[in-house]
Design brief:
Elements: E1 7-16, E2 21-28, E3 34-41, E4 45-52, E5 55-57, E6 62-64, E7 69-71, E8 76-78, H1 85-97, E9 104-109, E10 115-116, E11 125-133, H2 141-147, E12 149-151, H3 154-163, H4 167-180
Parallel strand pairs: 4-11
Antiparallel strand pairs: 1-2, 2-3, 4-5, 4-8, 5-12, 6-7, 9-11, 10-11
Length: 182
């Protein structure tokens, strides 16, 4: 079955910032209607589920301006245009957990193409990874005490889901749990 794409008639605004590009366009639908449409272009994201001694490690709560409160999150970050998702994982874990790349025993991608975060509004994709850490990895005490560690069992995952606000973090967690634990 063929689904026609809408045609861009013009771009009436384009605003660039270091974090995103806001674009306003007039689009013509397959029925000939002209719609004013706004969208955002953002760098892709990488989220990592670090597993250490059969527990998931979360970062200490971080203030999130978009919702005006602190939240628990998994390590993650933006993907620079010139890099592959798997190459930024050790850098993110070092920046956010204070561990070096040699602490990673096994790194498993959950998706190779990335999941589209919001196909109507943004081009951003999300790449998820599972990082099994060496049993000898030195995890800073603050991450264990303040961020939290959740056991990898039904009760631990259920408790973690009650604490996670970030939909991207929840999506990566649920994708991993459903595909590797069913």
């Amino acid at each position: 079955m063929h689904y026609p794409n809408w045609q861009i008639q013009d771009r009436f605004i384009e605003f660039h910032s270091p974090w995103l590009t806001l674009i306003g366009e007039h689009l013509q639908t397959e029925k000939g209607e002209i719609l004013k449409y706004w969208r955002v272009e953002k760098a892709d994201s990488v989220i990592i589920l670090p597993i250490y001694n059969q527990q998931l490690i979360l970062l200490p709560p971080t203030y999130r301006p978009g919702i005006g409160k602190t939240t628990l999150d998994f390590p993650g970050g933006r993907l620079p245009e010139t890099q592959k998702p798997i190459t930024v994982v050790p850098k993110i874990l070092e920046r956010e957990l204070g561990i070096t790349g040699d602490a990673i025993a096994q790194l498993t991608p959950l998706n190779s193409q990335g999941w589209v975060v919001n196909s109507s509004f943004s081009n951003q994709k999300l790449f998820g990874f599972i990082a099994h850490l060496q049993p000898t990895a030195q995890i800073p005490v603050d991450f264990i005490r303040i961020g939290g560690m959740y056991p990898i069992d039904r009760q631990g995952i259920s408790s973690l889901l009650q604490s996670l606000h970030c939909l991207q973090c929840r999506a990566v967690l649920l994708e991993w749990w459903v595909n590797f634990h069913s």
